[in-house]
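Repro:
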Amino acid sequence: DKMQLKITKSEALPVISGFFNHQQMAMRNEFNLFDNQEEWYPSTLWGININIPIFNSGEGKAKTTQKEINILKTTNQLENVLREISTLLGLLKNDYQIAIGRYEICEKKQQVADEMYKDELKKYELGSSQLMSLSEKKMLVIQAEQELLEKELEIYTLKSQLEKYTNPVKND
């Protein structure tokens, strides 16, 4: 776009060109190309041509302004894209931090469920608890482990996306 603007601006500049033409004519009734005695009449024309764009109804100014507007539009679009990328990257980093926090909570939840199961197992072995209660505690441990694995997968997914967008591409 910048090059087109320069071209458009150059159209408003004066154009100077020169020309030169030389020829010889025989001007005879009978033509003989190889006769050196016959006369040839030279004709030479030269001159300068100057084109100064004075009256163009403002067309040149309008074209220049349009090109400047196009450059400004392109610059604004680029800035918008960069802002969007920056915002999306910030959101991705934020999601990653939140996923780490959720993982830590699930880790504590899994530890609590494991301790509850161990306590319930001791009660069951002593005979003060029923098998149904022990099974419920074991189910809580399994659910907590499953949730912990899901959160770990979420962290790995977000981390790989972050690395994809922040690390340069390596060509081997």
